[in-house]
Amino acid sequence: MTAQPPVNSLRSLPDASGHFGQFGGRYVAETLMPLILDLEKEYRKAQDDPEFWAEFDALMKDFVGRPSPLYYAPRMTEHFREAAPAGKGPKIYFKREELNHTGAHKINNCIGQILLAMRMGKTKIIAETGAGQHGVATATVAARFGLECKIFMGATDVERQKPNVFRMKLLGAEVVPVTSGAMTLKDAMNDALRHWVANVHDTFYIIGTAAGPHPYPELVRDFQSIIGKETREQIMEKEGRLPDMLVAAVGGGSNAIGLFHPFLDDPEVAMTGIEAAGFGIESGKHAASLTGGKPGILHGNKTYLLQDEDGQITEAHSISAGLDYPGLGPEHSWLHESGRVRYVPITDDQALEAFKLCCSLEGIIPALESAHALAALPQLTAEMDEDKILVVNVSGRGDKDIFTVAEALGVEL
Amino acid sequence: MTRFETAFAKGPALVCFITGGDGDTAANLDALVEGGADVIELGMPFTDPMADGPAIQEANIRSLDKGTRTADIFRMAAEFRARHPHVPLVLMGYANPMTVRGPEWFAAECAKAGVDGVICVDIPPEEDAALGPALRGAGVSLIRLATPTTDAARLPAVLEGSSGFLYYVSVAGITGMQQAAQASIEDAVARLKAASNIPVAVGFGVRTPEQASQIAKVADGVVVGSALVDLVKQHGDKAAGPLKELTSALAEAVHSAR
């Protein structure tokens, strides 16, 4: 963890002040600033402490169930090879984050952050959640370590994600319905920040994605980088070489940055991040901050945001609640502008098609977030030779999404 | 002397906040001045006011729902300046609306509209480059916030590059909720005044003339916001009368410490 990246590395950011080029930073109220500085200090100490990582690794292994498999997807490979022009259609691998405890990559970050919270002597945990996945993961680690836990969730989401609300309650968390704004993820984050400002002395905020004020984007990335590090080892073992293409969905962007970051300095590895295009970019109802937004400041960082010309934040839309956010992590904004990662929009309908295809061809029900990544395969595989290797991050399982999918397909359960 | 210096030279000053575009803003601002407010804070509405409690959050939403644009806020400011040439006017809001067209644009518009100072909740000293240099270059004061978590080591950084007055947020929390203990305010203000050569105004959770008069005994200014915004919620476009009444009571309480 502490090895220094080489000079001119794409992996050396953020800089000392928490910026990724013009993005990132610490745009928070003064009340929070001292705490943010403390958190950074504590994280620097943890980074250099082998005991911290030993505990992290042990929990990853025995509590989370890592390493997650890197699975060769034979029927998807075959399917796209047949559809592609002659000689095209790479080998497709799935990084199976959906097999983790709680069913997604979110738990990796929650384990890391709660260990930091305890090092800082904080006794209470708060988090925001949209669909409830990060809420469940946070409630899980809070239960595991016996810390009091409050989850802020938009009232609209509380209503449409009842199973996850019940899960969080079973795990001992208090779910606080947020009634401000549109009562969804963005508003849950606002209210979590409001609660935090009033309770900084004993409360730690476990942010769910690689966004927010520095050092959150960095530490969330570092905890999630276990995805890319494992992938690297596993592909070397299976194929004896690095992959040619990495694909991951980007909401806030934590599963994507976790997969991408360990490969950023390998120029032969191309990367595609998938943004949620909802009903289509031209419809205005989407969550594609890079394709349809511009740089701005929200929730502690500067990054691409969906906003109007006055800088008012506009509502995002995606069929996937986990991608339904009007911004994304600052490192993705930087990787976009630097050209290192290509970002592609995928609509609700495309994601649904990919969802069904993955179920029927591989026997894996992917999360709708991950289905966005899978939906880029028709286009990507048609451009790649047969002897190439492509890895998709299947970041979560889709059990939570069956009600949404049934409704979209007109099926009554 | 700047408008701020004149306003604070008379002794403890009453600083009044309302959200721009919520109710009849021109009439409400006039009512605050007539009631005896020494400094006016005009809130720029934002979709995501993270540091505000329910009262001001709702005021932001009411204003945006009526279609208030940034251009409207500057128009309100310029008209206020024409009607009240001597009353200091501060814009208070969040980073994104203030920087979306570039900080230089925003600073130039402030100067053109006769705005004396700007409070930006989510630009701490660490991110000063995003707005501070542009404001200072245009001759507009950057008014920073100090909080109960701002320790002695941080205070010089907070004061550096700020002017007009220092806004002490008396509770670690959001606007309009709980009230700080008088003793903690006295300690903090003494500490801030010792380190600073600009006036120190105290706000967050101040609702009544009684509280205001206690704070005015130790601070250079008292900021009231949510209690006024509540009146606009209650009386809609006819809030000027009740605003003037509350402001008069607050002003009397604050000025009696002079």
UniProtKB/TrEMBL annotation, chain A:
Keywords: Amino-acid biosynthesis, Aromatic amino acid biosynthesis, Lyase, Pyridoxal phosphate, Tryptophan biosynthesis. InterPro entries: Trp_synth_b_CS (IPR006653), Trp_synth_beta (IPR006654), Trp_synth_beta/beta-like (IPR023026), TrpB-like_PALP (IPR001926), TrpB-like_PALP_sf (IPR036052). One of its GO terms (molecular function) is tryptophan synthase activity. PROSITE patterns: TRP_SYNTHASE_BETA. It catalyses: (1S,2R)-1-C-(indol-3-yl)glycerol 3-phosphate + L-serine = D-glyceraldehyde 3-phosphate + L-tryptophan + H2O. Its cofactor is pyridoxal 5'-phosphate. Gene3D superfamilies: 3.40.50.1100. The modification N6-(pyridoxal phosphate)lysine is found at K106. NCBIfam families: trpB. The beta subunit is responsible for the synthesis of L-tryptophan from indole and L-serine. This is Tryptophan synthase beta chain. It comes from Novosphingobium beihaiensis.
UniProtKB/TrEMBL annotation, chain B:
Pfam families: Trp_syntA (PF00290). Its EC number is 4.2.1.20. Keywords: Amino-acid biosynthesis, Aromatic amino acid biosynthesis, Lyase, Tryptophan biosynthesis. The active site is at E41 (proton acceptor), D52 (proton acceptor). Pathway: Amino-acid biosynthesis; L-tryptophan biosynthesis; L-tryptophan from chorismate: step 5/5. It comes from the Bacteria. Belongs to the TrpA family. The alpha subunit is responsible for the aldol cleavage of indoleglycerol phosphate to indole and glyceraldehyde 3-phosphate. This is Tryptophan synthase alpha chain. It comes from Novosphingobium beihaiensis. The lineage of its organism: Bacteria, Pseudomonadati, Pseudomonadota, Alphaproteobacteria, Sphingomonadales. The gene is trpA.
